[in-house]
Amino acid sequence: MKISMSLFGTAAAMALLAGQAQADVSIMYADWLADLVEPGIEAYEQATGETVDAIKLPGEGYVERVALDLASGTAADVIQMDSFVVSELASAGYTMNLNDALAGWDQYPSYMSGLTEVVSYDGGVYALPTDTDVRMLWYSVPVMEKAGIALPWEPKSWDDILDAARQIQEKTGIEDAFLLPVGTKRGEATTMQGFYMALLGADVPEAGRNRLRDWDAGKWVGDSPAIRRTLELYKTIYIDEKLGTQATNYATDVDSTIRQGLREGTMGIVASGSWENSCIWDCSGGSELSQSERDGMVNWSEWPGSGLEGTMETTNISGGWAIGLNENASDKDAAFGLLTTIFDQGNFEDWTVTNGRMAVRTDISGGDAYQSDPFLARATPLAANTTGRDTFPGYQIVSALVQQMTADILEGLSVDEAVEEYHAALVDEFGEDNVITYE
Amino acid sequence: MDERPSRSLALALCFVAVIWVSPFAWLLSNAFDTSAVGILRLPQDPGVGNFGRALSGSSGLQMWNSLVIAFGTATLTVAVAAGAAYPLSRIRIPGRDAMLWGLVLLRMMPSTGLMIPIFFSAQKTGLLNHLGVILALSILNLPFALLLLKNFFDTVPIELEEAAHVEGASLFQIVGRIVLPLSRPGLAVVWFFTFTTAWNEFLLPLLFSRAESGFPMSVGLYAAFGQQGAIDYGFLAAYSILYAAPAIAVYFLLRRNMNTGFAGVGVKG
Amino acid sequence: MSLRNDTKPWLSGGFGLVILASIPAVLFVGALIFFTVWVVTFSFTDLSLVGAKSVNWSWIGFDNYERLFTRRGFMESLWVTVSFTFFSAIVGQSLLGFLLASVMRALRGPLRGFIEVAIMLGWLLPDIVAAFLWSATTAENGLINSVVLGPLGFDSVNFLNEFAFPVVVVANVWKGTAWSYLLFSAALDSVPRDVIEAAQVDGATWWQRTRRVTLPMIKSHIGTNTLFITIWTFTYFPLVYAMTGGGPGRQTKVLSIFMYEQSFKIGKLGYGSAISVAMLLVVGLLAVFYVRLLKEPE
Questions:
Q1: What is the value of pTM for the model shown?
Q2: What is the CATH number of domain A135-315+394-437?
Q3: DSSP string computed for B103-141
Q4: If you measure CA to CA, which chain C residue comes closest to A417?
Q5: ipTM, 2 decimals?
Q6: Is residue B199 included in any domain, yes or no?
Q7: Which residue in C162, C245, C264 is closest to A184 by CB distance?
Q8: Is C295 within 8 Å of B236 when comparing Cβ atoms?
C-alpha cells in the first residue's frame, strides 16, 4: 500500500508538471501542418503578448482525438480538421459560425467563393480552408517510353487508360500498371482519388446521375448506372485483367510505396492528386529537382471521362483541409485573432508556394511567387471546373461505405451484390426516404 | 538427468534463432543508414546520425513519460491485485472461481471498444493526465493480474503461514515477511507483463495528454510519419531501437525472478 | 458465521486489513463493469462519433444486433478472427512455445541466452515497428526474396499480395511466442526430475515421456496459456491493422479491426458497441468451453 501511495504522489506531481501553464488561447493541429501553423502562432504571440497553448498531434489518431475532445468539451479553441468533417461538426453544434467575424476581416473577400462552400453548412462558414487540390493521373515517363506509348500521354476515355495499362504490362511486365485507389485502408483516397474521379465521368452530369449525392432532391444516391460502371472499372482492373495489384493498396505504408514506385519506374499509372508534384520527391518541398527534371521522370495528365456520350471530357473533384473554431472557446476574439494571423497573407503565401499547394485565395494565386511556379500555373486551371466534395452531414459514413463497396469487388462479389450491400447500408443509416435510385 | 544437447539439436536451435532475428536486419540497416529509404540494403551512408536525430527534441521527455506510465501502471496493478488476490486465495468465498472467470470475461471486449466510456469518465473526474492513463490501464489489466496472482498465491505453502501464526506473528507480518517474498517471481511476471502492455499503449496517452509534453514514446514514434506520406525511415528505425531498449533492459533485470514465476501461472484443474 | 469459521485464523484476526486491502480492487472492478455496461447501452442506440447523431441519438432496439447477421462484415470477420486465433495463437505460439521450451531445457550457456533474447525481442518491439519489419521482410525486394528465393532461382514473390493471411499469422507467432515460451519453460522446470528420470529408465522415448508424464503434469499451465492467448489474440489489433489494414478485401479483417473501423473511421459508435458486445459473448463461450475441458476428471 505504501508503494502505491507514493506512486500516486509521483504520478500526480508528474501530471501537474506536464499540464499546461494558463494560456490565453489554445490550438490543436496535426504535425504535418506545422509549417503553416507555427509561424502564425509565433507572430500572434509577438503581436499580442498573449501565450498560445499549442498541441501538435501525430496524424495517426488525429480524427478520433478531435472528435472526442469536441464531444467532451475539452477541445482547443482553434482546431485543424479535414474539410469533409466541417459540416458534421457544425451540424452537431461543436464549431462556431464565422460569418459575423469574417465580415470584419479585410482579407476574407479574397477567398474564392466556390471553395468556401466546402466549409459551409446551412448558410454559415464554419472554417477556413488551408488549401485545395485537384486530381489527375500520374505516370512514370520511362515506363511509358518503354511501353511505346506516345508522350505526352493524353487519354480521352477509360478505354485509353486501360489500353495503356495493358500495353505497359505486356511490354514491361510491371504489375502495377494502373493503380486506382481501392479498399478501406486507403480511406478518403479511395473515395476521392479513385471512385469519385471515375464516377463523375461515368454518366451525364445531371443532378445525381454522376454523383454520390443528389443535391436537388436532397438524397444520397444508393444505386445508379454510374456507380455500376465505376465498379465494373474496378473489376476490370483488379479482378478480370489484374492491371494493378490489390496488396499495394493495403501496404503498411501505401503512400510511400506508391511514390517510390513512380520515382523508380516500377509502376505505370497512378490516380492521385496535385500534392504529388512535391510529395513524390519530398513532401516538405525540399527537393532540389527542377520542374522540368521532375516532368522528365513523372508526369501527369487529366482524368478523362468514360467516353460515353454526353459525359464530361475531363473530371475533377477537390477536397483539402481547414481550420475552424470551437463553439465553446473561452475567448472567441482571441481565437479568431489567432486564426487570421495564421492565414495572414505573407505566412499563408509562403506555405502555399513552398509546399506546392493549390491556393484558395485570389491574392495568393495572383501573386508573383505563385504565378511563376510552373506546376501551379499548369494545374490551377483544372480547379476552374472542379466539383466540390459532397460535404453534407453524413458524408463521412457514405464515403466509408463507398470504400467498403470497392473492397467488396476485390473480395470477388459481383457488381450487383456490392451495390445491393451499399444500398442497404445507406438505408440503414439515412432511411428509405433519403436514398434515391437512378435507373 | 544429463541430457547434453546433441550437435544436430544445437544446430537446429541456432537455425531457429537466426530465422527469428533475421527480420531485424531491416531495422538495423535502416537505423545505421543516414539516407535510409525503408528497404533492406547495406547502408549507403553508414553513420549514427539517425540516433542523434532520434535523441534530439523531446524524446528524453517522452521516454520519461513512458517510464512514468509503464512503471506506474505495473506497480499500481500489482499492488491492487495483490491486495485482493491474497484473501481470494486463502478464504473460501462461495462462487469465487466463477467470479474470477467472470472478470476475465469482461476483458474479452476489445479495449478500443471501451475507449469512449473511459475517456468521458476521465474527463468528468479531471483525470485527463498521466494519472488517468495509469488508472485506466490498471483497471484494464486488473482481471488478468488478479487471476494470475491468485493462482500464484495458491502455490505458496500454507504451512509456513500457520507456523508463523502459532509463533504470534500478525497478518501484516505474515504477508510482509513470508507471502510476498515467496511470491516474488509471480509478482515479477505480472509486473513485467503489465509494464510491457503499458509501454506499448498508444491510444490512451494520445487521447489523455492535454499537452505535447505529456506524450510517451509510443506517440513520439509517429513523428517519423510527420510529413504527409513521406516516412523518415532512418528516424523510425533508430527511434524504435531506443524505444524498445528500456523494455528489454527491464526484462533482463527481472529475468532471474521471472523464470520460476511463470510456473505459478497455471490454474488448478 | 461460516465464512469466518472456514477462514485461516491469521486472516480472521486481521479482517479489517483484509477488507482495506481489497477495496481498491473492488473499486477497479466496479469501474470496469461500469464501462462495460455503458458499452452495452450504446449498442442499443444509433449514437455516432461526429455529426448530428452524436448529440441527438435515439434508441433503436436490437437493430444493431440484427445487422451483425443481415449485413456483410461481422460473420466474415468472425471467421477470419477464429482462424487467425487458431493458427497464430493456439497452433503457432502455444505449440512452438512448448517445443522450444521443451528442447531448450537441455541447453545452458550463451546459446540459450541468445535464443531467449531473440524470442523476447519480438515481444518487446512496438507493434507498428514490428509491422514495418514484417512488411519489409516479405516485400518483393525484402529479406525472404533476396536471401532465400532469389539465390535458389525462384521468381520473387509479393507475399502480402499472394498470402496476406499466412503472413500476418506468421508475424503474430513471431511477436507473441515469448509469453508461451516463458510460461512453458517455467512449467517444465516445475516437473520433478525424478519422475522424468524414472520414465527414462523405463526406456520411454521423448514423445512417450512428453505424452504420458510431462503433459498431464503441466495440464493446468496449458489451460491457462490457451485461455490467455486466445483472449489476447481474439481482441488483438495493432499489428494486423498496421500491416494490412484488414485487406486485401477482407482477407485479414479481424473483428477488432472491423469494430475499430465501424466505430472510429465510419463513426457508428452504436454499431461498433454491438460488435464489441458480440465479441465478448463469442469469446465468453469459447472460455467456458476451455474451462470445462480443464475441469474434466482425470
A1: 0.88
A2: 3.40.190.10
A3: HHHHTTS-GGGGHHHHHHHHHHTT--SHHHHHHHHHHHH
A4: C72
A5: 0.85
A6: yes
A7: C245
A8: no
